[in-house]
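Whiteboard transcription, Tuesday session. T.W. wrote the C-alpha coordinates on the left side:
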Protein backbone atom coordinates (compact mmCIF):
# COMPACT_ATOMS: atom_id res chain seq x y z
CA UNK A 1 0.00 0.00 0.00
CA UNK A 2 1.48 3.36 -0.96
CA UNK A 3 1.58 5.98 1.76
CA UNK A 4 0.78 8.96 -0.43
CA UNK A 5 -0.53 11.91 1.54
CA UNK A 6 -4.20 12.61 1.12
CA UNK A 7 -5.16 15.71 -0.83
CA UNK A 8 -6.35 18.42 1.57
CA UNK A 9 -9.70 20.01 0.74
CA UNK A 10 -11.51 22.85 2.53
CA UNK A 11 -15.30 23.13 2.64
CA UNK A 12 -16.12 26.63 3.81
CA UNK A 13 -19.54 27.95 4.80
CA UNK A 14 -20.59 31.42 3.55
CA UNK A 15 -23.21 33.09 5.77
CA UNK A 16 -21.77 33.89 9.18
CA UNK A 17 -18.42 32.35 8.21
CA UNK A 18 -16.98 34.08 5.12
CA UNK A 19 -19.38 36.88 6.01
CA UNK A 20 -19.72 38.37 9.46
CA UNK A 21 -23.51 38.51 9.18
CA UNK A 22 -26.28 36.14 8.10
CA UNK A 23 -27.53 37.47 4.79
CA UNK A 24 -30.71 35.46 4.37
CA UNK A 25 -32.14 36.68 7.65
CA UNK A 26 -30.87 40.22 6.96
CA UNK A 27 -32.61 40.36 3.56
CA UNK A 28 -35.92 39.08 4.90
CA UNK A 29 -35.75 41.33 7.96
CA UNK A 30 -35.01 44.35 5.75
CA UNK A 31 -38.08 43.81 3.52
CA UNK A 32 -40.03 42.62 6.55
CA UNK A 33 -42.95 40.75 4.94
CA UNK A 34 -45.67 39.84 7.47
CA UNK A 35 -45.26 36.33 8.86
CA UNK A 36 -41.53 35.79 8.30
CA UNK A 37 -40.59 35.74 12.00
CA UNK A 38 -42.78 32.76 12.82
CA UNK A 39 -41.16 30.79 9.96
CA UNK A 40 -37.64 31.72 11.12
CA UNK A 41 -38.48 30.56 14.65
CA UNK A 42 -39.71 27.19 13.36
CA UNK A 43 -36.45 26.67 11.44
CA UNK A 44 -34.32 27.49 14.50
CA UNK A 45 -36.40 25.18 16.67
CA UNK A 46 -35.91 22.52 13.95
CA UNK A 47 -39.70 22.11 13.60
CA UNK A 48 -39.41 22.63 9.84
CA UNK A 49 -36.44 21.99 7.55
CA UNK A 50 -34.10 24.72 6.36
CA UNK A 51 -35.25 24.13 2.78
CA UNK A 52 -38.89 24.51 3.72
CA UNK A 53 -38.26 27.57 5.89
CA UNK A 54 -36.07 29.51 3.48
CA UNK A 55 -38.39 28.68 0.59
CA UNK A 56 -41.40 29.94 2.52
CA UNK A 57 -39.71 33.14 3.68
CA UNK A 58 -38.68 34.18 0.17
CA UNK A 59 -42.10 33.26 -1.18
CA UNK A 60 -43.43 36.09 0.99
CA UNK A 61 -41.62 38.55 -1.31
CA UNK A 62 -42.95 39.56 -4.76
CA UNK A 63 -40.54 38.81 -7.64
CA UNK A 64 -40.96 42.41 -8.79
CA UNK A 65 -38.62 43.37 -5.92
CA UNK A 66 -35.78 41.51 -7.66
CA UNK A 67 -33.50 44.51 -8.17
CA UNK A 68 -33.87 45.80 -4.60
CA UNK A 69 -33.45 42.32 -3.11
CA UNK A 70 -30.31 41.58 -5.15
CA UNK A 71 -28.78 45.01 -4.43
CA UNK A 72 -29.48 44.70 -0.74
CA UNK A 73 -28.16 41.13 -0.63
CA UNK A 74 -24.84 42.14 -2.18
CA UNK A 75 -24.31 45.47 -0.39
CA UNK A 76 -25.20 44.02 3.02
CA UNK A 77 -22.33 41.51 2.98
CA UNK A 78 -19.41 42.11 5.34
CA UNK A 79 -16.41 39.84 4.73
CA UNK A 80 -14.64 38.32 7.75
CA UNK A 81 -11.06 39.43 8.17
CA UNK A 82 -8.35 37.33 6.52
CA UNK A 83 -10.50 35.66 3.86
CA UNK A 84 -8.36 36.73 0.88
CA UNK A 85 -5.27 35.64 2.83
CA UNK A 86 -6.77 32.21 3.50
CA UNK A 87 -7.46 31.74 -0.21
CA UNK A 88 -3.88 32.74 -1.02
CA UNK A 89 -2.55 30.34 1.62
CA UNK A 90 -4.69 27.46 0.31
CA UNK A 91 -3.48 28.08 -3.23
CA UNK A 92 0.15 28.19 -2.16
CA UNK A 93 -0.22 25.03 -0.03
CA UNK A 94 -2.06 23.15 -2.80
CA UNK A 95 -5.31 22.85 -0.83
CA UNK A 96 -8.56 22.66 -2.84
CA UNK A 97 -11.03 25.30 -1.67
CA UNK A 98 -14.81 24.89 -2.00
CA UNK A 99 -17.58 27.11 -0.73
CA UNK A 100 -20.53 25.11 0.60
CA UNK A 101 -23.29 27.55 1.34
CA UNK A 102 -26.94 27.56 2.27
CA UNK A 103 -26.91 31.06 0.77
CA UNK A 104 -28.43 32.02 -2.56
CA UNK A 105 -26.76 32.52 -5.93
CA UNK A 106 -27.86 36.14 -6.43
CA UNK A 107 -25.63 37.35 -3.59
CA UNK A 108 -23.12 34.48 -3.15
CA UNK A 109 -21.76 34.50 -6.74
CA UNK A 110 -21.26 38.28 -7.12
CA UNK A 111 -19.60 38.57 -3.70
CA UNK A 112 -17.20 35.67 -4.30
CA UNK A 113 -16.45 36.68 -7.89
CA UNK A 114 -14.14 39.45 -6.70
CA UNK A 115 -12.07 36.82 -4.85
CA UNK A 116 -11.58 34.85 -8.06
CA UNK A 117 -13.31 31.67 -6.82
CA UNK A 118 -14.56 29.73 -9.87
CA UNK A 119 -18.31 29.04 -9.83
CA UNK A 120 -17.69 25.28 -10.09
CA UNK A 121 -16.09 25.56 -6.63
CA UNK A 122 -19.19 27.22 -5.17
CA UNK A 123 -22.17 25.17 -4.05
CA UNK A 124 -25.22 27.22 -3.06
CA UNK A 125 -28.95 27.50 -3.68
CA UNK A 126 -30.50 29.07 -6.76
CA UNK A 127 -33.25 31.63 -7.29
CA UNK A 128 -36.05 32.16 -9.77
CA UNK A 129 -37.64 35.59 -10.19
CA UNK A 130 -39.79 34.69 -13.20
CA UNK A 131 -43.08 34.11 -11.32
CA UNK A 132 -45.23 36.23 -9.00
CA UNK A 133 -43.11 35.45 -5.96
CA UNK A 134 -39.42 34.78 -5.40
CA UNK A 135 -38.77 31.03 -5.63
CA UNK A 136 -35.61 29.51 -4.24
CA UNK A 137 -34.31 26.51 -6.19
CA UNK A 138 -32.34 23.63 -4.72
CA UNK A 139 -29.77 22.24 -7.17
CA UNK A 140 -27.78 20.35 -4.47
CA UNK A 141 -30.29 18.21 -2.55
CA UNK A 142 -29.51 15.49 -0.01
CA UNK A 143 -28.30 12.11 -1.29
CA UNK A 144 -29.56 8.78 0.08
CA UNK A 145 -27.29 9.11 3.14
CA UNK A 146 -28.94 12.30 4.44
CA UNK A 147 -32.56 12.86 5.37
CA UNK A 148 -32.37 16.33 6.92
CA UNK A 149 -33.93 18.06 3.89
CA UNK A 150 -30.96 20.44 3.99
CA UNK A 151 -31.75 22.23 0.75
CA UNK A 152 -28.03 22.59 0.04
CA UNK A 153 -26.62 19.39 1.45
CA UNK A 154 -23.03 19.84 2.63
CA UNK A 155 -22.45 16.18 3.47
CA UNK A 156 -23.61 15.09 0.00
CA UNK A 157 -20.86 17.26 -1.49
CA UNK A 158 -18.27 16.07 1.04
CA UNK A 159 -19.02 12.44 0.19
CA UNK A 160 -17.78 13.12 -3.36
CA UNK A 161 -14.33 13.49 -1.78
CA UNK A 162 -13.76 10.05 -0.19
CA UNK A 163 -11.84 10.04 3.08
CA UNK A 164 -9.26 7.54 1.85
CA UNK A 165 -8.07 10.07 -0.75
CA UNK A 166 -8.91 13.41 0.89
CA UNK A 167 -8.25 15.08 4.20
CA UNK A 168 -11.51 16.98 4.66
CA UNK A 169 -11.41 20.32 6.47
CA UNK A 170 -14.63 22.14 7.32
CA UNK A 171 -14.99 25.79 8.33
CA UNK A 172 -18.37 26.85 9.65
CA UNK A 173 -20.52 28.49 12.28
CA UNK A 174 -23.97 26.99 12.38
CA UNK A 175 -26.28 24.04 12.74
CA UNK A 176 -26.11 23.49 8.96
CA UNK A 177 -22.40 22.70 9.27
CA UNK A 178 -22.93 20.17 11.99
CA UNK A 179 -23.43 17.01 9.93
CA UNK A 180 -20.40 18.00 7.87
CA UNK A 181 -18.32 18.38 11.03
CA UNK A 182 -19.03 14.73 11.88
CA UNK A 183 -17.48 13.66 8.56
CA UNK A 184 -14.53 16.04 8.57
CA UNK A 185 -10.94 15.31 9.64
CA UNK A 186 -10.47 18.88 10.84
CA UNK A 187 -13.16 21.30 12.07
CA UNK A 188 -12.74 25.07 12.42
CA UNK A 189 -15.76 26.37 14.27
CA UNK A 190 -17.40 29.39 15.77
CA UNK A 191 -20.78 30.19 17.32
CA UNK A 192 -23.45 27.42 17.17
CA UNK A 193 -21.09 24.93 15.57
CA UNK A 194 -18.66 25.29 18.51
CA UNK A 195 -21.51 24.63 20.95
CA UNK A 196 -22.63 21.58 18.97
CA UNK A 197 -19.08 20.18 18.80
CA UNK A 198 -18.67 20.62 22.57
CA UNK A 199 -22.00 18.92 23.18
CA UNK A 200 -20.92 15.85 21.23
CA UNK A 201 -17.25 15.85 22.10
CA UNK A 202 -16.14 16.46 18.50
CA UNK A 203 -12.59 17.78 18.13
CA UNK A 204 -12.66 21.36 16.83
CA UNK A 205 -10.54 24.51 16.73
CA UNK A 206 -12.31 27.79 17.36
CA UNK A 207 -11.65 30.81 15.17
CA UNK A 208 -12.62 34.46 15.10
CA UNK A 209 -10.87 35.58 11.89
CA UNK A 210 -9.40 33.58 9.02
CA UNK A 211 -5.93 34.57 10.26
CA UNK A 212 -6.54 32.20 13.21
CA UNK A 213 -7.14 29.35 10.76
CA UNK A 214 -4.05 30.13 8.66
CA UNK A 215 -1.90 30.20 11.83
CA UNK A 216 -3.32 26.88 12.99
CA UNK A 217 -2.83 25.21 9.60
CA UNK A 218 0.78 26.41 9.50
CA UNK A 219 1.39 25.05 13.01
CA UNK A 220 -0.16 21.69 12.11
CA UNK A 221 2.21 21.27 9.18
CA UNK A 222 5.42 22.09 11.07
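and on the right, the sequence the group agreed on:
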Amino acid sequence: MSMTARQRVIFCDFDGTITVNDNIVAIIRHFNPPGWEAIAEQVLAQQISIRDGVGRMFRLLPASLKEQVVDYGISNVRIREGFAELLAYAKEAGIDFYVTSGGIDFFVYPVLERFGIPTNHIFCNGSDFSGERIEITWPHPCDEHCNNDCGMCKTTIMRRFPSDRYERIIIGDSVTDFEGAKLADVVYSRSHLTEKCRELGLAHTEFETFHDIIDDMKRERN
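Someone added at the bottom: DSSP finds eleven helices and seven strands in the chain.
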